[in-house]
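Design review, sub-item: ligand-bound model
Attendees: FS, YL, KQ
YL presented the inputs for the flavin-adenine dinucleotide complex:
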Amino acid sequence: MRFSASAGRCPVIAIIGGGFCGTLTAVQLLRRAEPGTRILLIERSGDFGPGVAYSTRDDRHVLNVPAARMSAFSAEPLDLVDWAGVEPDAYVPRRVYGEYLRASLAGAAARSAARLERVTGEVVRARPARGAIELVLADGGHIACDRAVLAVGSLPAAPVCELPDDPRVIRDPWGELVGEGDEAAPRADTATTLVIGSGPTAVDVALTLCGSSPRARVIAVSRHGRLPFAHRAGLRRPLPAPALPAGPLQLSELEHRIRTHVARVDAGGGDWRDAIDGLRPLLPDLWRRLPLSDRRRFLRERLRTWEVRRHRLAPAAAASVRVLRVQGRLTVLAGGVERIRARRGGIEVRLHDGRSLAAARVVTCTGAGLAVAATPDPLVRGLLADGHAWADPLGLGLRATRPARCSTRPGAATSASGCWGRCAAGSCGSRPRCRSCAIRPWPSPTASARRSPRPLPSPSRSRREASRLSNRHNDRVRISAKVDYAMRALVELAASGDGSPVTAERLADAQGIPQKFLQNILLELRRAGIVASHRGPDGGHALAKPADKITVADVIRAVDGPLGSVAGRAPEDMEYQGSTMRLRDTWVAVRASVRGVLEGITLDDIASDHLPDSIGRLLDGSDAWVRR
Ligand SMILES: Cc1cc2nc3c(=O)[nH]c(=O)nc-3n(C[C@H](O)[C@H](O)[C@H](O)COP(=O)(O)OP(=O)(O)OC[C@H]3O[C@@H](n4cnc5c(N)ncnc54)[C@H](O)[C@@H]3O)c2cc1C
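KQ shared the predicted structure:
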């Protein structure tokens, strides 16, 4: 199969992934695109609309959000309610929601001046080619397009331990067990199924298996052993969020404020769920305002506690779960899985605490993968390997230039990438928000060339070259190569995790910096109190203070001297006469303006992919990217 790009006529926009985000991106583009625009929606399953979440045919699997809050269109909140003919507080089957997405796509295509083409196939590679983007399909086909949108959903999680290659060990519950509803569930099943995980998918599996056979039993085992909380019945009104300070936040402070807020709501006879739901619109912003180290701590220590409260079960699903637990047909255990062995009589699962469990089959329901670099997905792996995409600072998903930014104008390069869903935690901590069109820019080949830094000398460049670069001072408004290297090394340290030392060799390798040159830079940064160096076998370099306390201005001053000097002198020391009198004021104003930018951005802002809004506004300027 071969499609060709627009060749200067109408744009061709390819959307990779025809699930929830991809379909709604297509709908938005169809609504706004210029006549003749071709929109290719590429989906490997051949079913355009429902994606993983809404493909189930088991009507025991319902939405976990009331119909009034699941409209595909934020400007038409009752669209789903009207379409499905249900009450606003109904939790409709996810199968019905899948149909709604298919119907929304068909309706938008029928009314659009643009052309929608549904392409069944799996994209395994995306790369720039002759001014366009070339997509390679698993069947060997090629598609050329002007813009590509990445909407491939959550990446699969790495298995909790090595899984035996046995049909009784089910890795994908949607494909192999519950996806087909009753037809696939073993009838009159008296067997015990062990489910690894206790989140919403584990609940779905339990509802399908126990609903299909009155004698089936399910044991759910997860590290925390907690099922999601339940929604309260009726259409609840989220409570206003508490007042929160502007600017950077610390996790401990944020938690304290939220706990106090929830306690106040409780004391006033309200419900904690409505307090938590009131925070929802703030979540992406709050997440970005946390320093990287706090985001990591949240993922390590708080994620489960948060998820069981935030992603709750519909009242009917929660009631069924209660009944199954009372009947002893659903048991939930806390424990980490150490080993799974397939035996002739069943599957044996050993937990870290030494317990051993036996089951007729095991189903893994561990949710989305949280390490994009380890994904087996060929498309995402290729994008990372070819340098067309980068992992976000936490490695959960793909980095976007301006997270959660609305960008649906026709022809915009967009990406609702694998970092949506749980993986979006890496950039904005939110679930997919295509209902409000939060899709992200994915630079086209031209745009990415425009934005990427000029190639820097490879580590093999001579010392003379390095020293020539190091002597280039910042005496004009120019960022020296030395500053650029210093910043790269420091941001690498800021993003590298728990603050343990990193060797100069690793920093140099990671950023392509000549090692000798880097050693000198690190020495200067150490003298300025920005970096601390540690000796010994585990030695290396670490930031000497928190990343959110080191500004770009601090780094420039450490390696290049004071900001905004004029011919090596401070602007206020310059002397002018006659008609040039106001030049001194001009240079002082230039310095003040440069400081405004450089003192306003910290290492943490850069490492955590969240530049301050004032800087974002500068970047949005129509000619900000034009050299002159
Ligand atoms: C079981 C479950 C229940 C959920 N229930 C709710 C709910 O009630 N309410 C709610 O708001 N959210 C719910 N969610 C969250 C839900 O995941 C998101 O709301 C949303 O469906 C995710 O959309 P997506 O487009 O990112 O992924 P998906 O909808 O899964 O779409 C990704 C699509 O891309 C395709 N694809 C992937 N790679 C390629 C490729 N290389 N080439 C071609 N096609 C490709 C896949 O086949 C898939 O169809 C649920 C999630 C799950 C797993």
